[in-house]
Amino acid sequence: MTKIADIRGMTPDQLAEQLLSLKKEQFNLRFQAATGQVEKTHRVGEIRKDIARIKTVLRAKAAA
Question: Is Hydrolase set as a keyword in this record (predicted)?
């Protein structure tokens, strides 16, 4: 889980890169869940929330 203070300290390029890696991980977890292979079910929710945090900070930085 990524802390909001860490996210706010990142540059927009770093945030975009982090967002891309989280979306890839989310896709892989979704695929594992569909085939019944997912081990860490709590990670799905954590990734969703981290993606939302990053998008929120990106939008705030774009507005500023």
Answer: no
| Residues of the chain under the 50 pLDDT cut | none
Structural domain total, the chain: 1
**Sign of the CA dihedral with 13 first, then 18, 23, and 24 last:** positive
Cα angle vertex 24, ends 9, 5, to 5°?
A: 15
Residue 3 is predicted with a pLDDT of 86
Q: Residue 30 sits in which domain range? A: 2-61
Instruction: Report the distance separating Cα 45 and Cα 24, nearest Å.
Output: 14
Q: Can you say how many angstroms the Cα of residue 2 is from the centroid of all Cα atoms in its chain?
A: 8
Identity (one letter) of the amino acid at 58? L
Res 45: pLDDT: 93
